[in-house]
Fold these 3 entries.
Entry 1:
Amino acid sequence: MKGTYLKFYLHENRQHHHVLAYEWLLEQARALGIQGGSVFKSIAGYGRHGVLHEDHFFELGNDLPVEVVFVLSPEQSGQLLNLVREAGLPLLYVTMPVEYGILP
């Protein structure tokens, strides 16, 4: 099947209405009927502000970058992006065309 790879970049402790933003994204996707999504935590990274965030063994309050990833239809991608826009949640995102399927 042809679809869209949609990835959001954000910090792990970013919140939206007192909910972690990555959890909010996953819940919105599930409510739209999107069949799956994943969150991946980085060990280091920096964003447009140039601040380097790194994982250290003794740090308790991490603010590391995370990626929230979906493989979905172009229509679902548009719906999810519109929800994020309407929520006023400014997030960096990337879309790419993909081919996907399920092997028997």
Entry 2:
Amino acid sequence: MTFCETGKAGLYLHVPFCRRKCPYCDFYSVPAQAETLEAYTEAVCRNLKQYADAVPMDTVYFGGGTPSLLSPQQIGSILETAAACFPLAADAEVTLEANPATVTRQQLSQLRAAGVNRISFGVQSLEPEQLRYLGRLHTADEAIRTVEDAAAAGFQSISCDLMLALPEQTSRALSHTIERLTALPIQHVSAYLLKIEPGTPFFAQQEELRCPDGDAAADLYLQAVSELEQAGFLQYEISNFAREGFHSRHNCKYWHCVPYLGIGPSAHSCWNGTRFAVPASVQAFLTQPVQHTEIEDATPGTPEELLMLGMRLTEGVPAAWLAGKEHKVQQFSRMGFLRQDGARIALTPKGFLVSNSILAELLI
């Protein structure tokens, strides 16, 4: 079983603006100014026209940054231009990432009317102390209210981000957040282990943060997998869980190595047979007739890459891809890291925690 139709491409739009940078985030973003947001919208539409193609698309993803800082009118303008430049499926999945502190019920209704049909909220936690550590702009009550507002506005596909192994996070606190989160009208959860990235405030403060150690972080991850499954959210990728039929069709394109076009500063693409990236510069993106790109991989989709990406999914990969590695597969299966289901081999939740080491062995 595969989780998404692999015959159609996706469109990714990087919106590199935030009200305030979170202390753990190393994604490219800059402060938002009204005139810059308008100039950005115009630049995206200009680039869409430059890339116009007959390649069918069935997903659009506004990532960031905080894409919800764009107005519903600006989002609508971008979607109208995209539909004019590419054969966009009538049932296209259109996702917008949003900070719970940046959208009102009225804006959510307007976004739904503009064509957004899937929304992803950066909730991260529903524990006040955890939200304070993370520098989030919203409270737990505001996050809950925003999710409920989105459902009232007509969104039937709502995702929430959840961070694991936060400073001083306990098993009990995680259970409390998961219990409250899964009681909301949501269909998808992305649960990520906190990673302390160089250059972030958290990196400079890591000795003071008192984050769980490796073993405790692994326990919290396995706890999240178990409790989300009990609540009806089945794991389909290392960090992603969904009710039946509500997986992220767009993100599945990355793991199935399906073409996608990225537009915006620091956006990445796998398009026309190459992987390329846009430099992380808002100023350059706004002033150039077409975004500058740098080739990252001239031959994507190698057997090794397909194996590494496919093993991120709980559906795994065809056993034939590991022909000649049966001894290692059996060894890792006995250790509880791999499982073989018919003609497919996949990592277990325990295996996902050490996936890099296992893949390194399987690729030798």
Entry 3:
Amino acid sequence: MSDKQASFKARWQAEAVRLLQGAASDLQAEAGAREGAATEAEQRVLRWAAIIGARHQLPEIQSAWRRHCILILMVISVLALAGGFTTALTVLGDGTQAVNIPWALGGLLGLNLLMLIFWLLGMLARSDGALLGRLVFQLTHYLPGEHHKALTRAFATLNQRADLMRWWLGLLSHTVWLCAMLGALFGLLWTLALRSYAFTWETTILSADVFTALVHGLSLLPQTLGISIPDAATLVGADQSQADEVRRQWAAWLTASVALYGLMPRLVLILISSIRLLVGLRQLRLQTTAPEWAPLVQRLTPDLNERHVTDPAPEAGQAARIVPVSNPRPGTSVLVAYELTAIKPWPPAELPEHTQCLEVNSRGQRQQSLSALAEARPGTLMVICDARLSPDRGTLHWLVNAGSLAGVTQIVLHNSEQSSDERLTSWHDSLRDIGVDIAHIHHAMTEALNQLGVHNG
């Protein structure tokens, strides 16, 4: 799966699977991800998530989550539409009294413009600032089921890292406010079509010049669209005997103001938010180098044993070497009994704190031990091998993988006294070739374990 083919939905699913899985290892999914043709870490992660997601039907749950979000948005938008319609009816009244133009403008546009200013300030401060958007998204947290909650958290986490969450919330908020202004516009047109209204300007402390300046300022945009500007003087001292032509002019001016200053800004911002999201989602990638992804990425790195098992034997100087992990956990250690089915007692008695014991006797246990080491990142890895057996390629490849997940690797050649000199030499040469220091090769298990403070009573 290439970067272009990988969709936001696939990356969203991967983030949700990570949250659901936690630190738990899924050997089947990890093996499947390693066996694919993917060369990039993100591609293997997406394959891993697709395997686990299909098992838990996450694609279907994702679709259901999106439908629930759309339903929530639709319900809130319908309520906003009804609220805007009701506001228009309330502001204009029943027609028995003249409509105060500034009061009507404030009632129809005031809250919308105030929230728009808050959103703009929030965007400048790089916060979401979209109250209605947060309300819509917050309601998704109440969807039932662990998978729904994980998808909600994954959606937020993925988009916040890409600085897209504020655009999502803004898009939701602008959509709701657009519906509110549509409701106000419909209510305004409905009421003006069924009732006859006179318009006036009433004030106690302001002069007529203030109102005239307001009308001329708000008329700049309507005038460019060819909408006639009524004379502000016609409202001073107006009463119910106002001429029909004057009433129609003020009705058109009020309707145009609501459409241009209430509706159009939200439409433009919806378009801007949508374009920003489209561009951002195309560029979005999983941050596989982040600490929360690192253990999984290590486990998904193709195993050297699987990578080379069918290849010809490597020539001298071409053997893979141990590369110690860069961030081991100091003071921790792991003991591994490698193909020692008869070792007694195991695990050793009186293990010190922060010491873990593992056994490796099968292919499945090799994979499990590597997963455990990837999570543990021990400061010291001590592997106990049977010196009577030859150091075959499978063993050496596993040692390279295991040693690359720890700080220091030490090898104990158990039963050295029962092995031939030729075989011990082969062990020493092979271990040196993969990067094990000669000082870290032991022949007496008791002494080696005592270095870690382990009693092998």
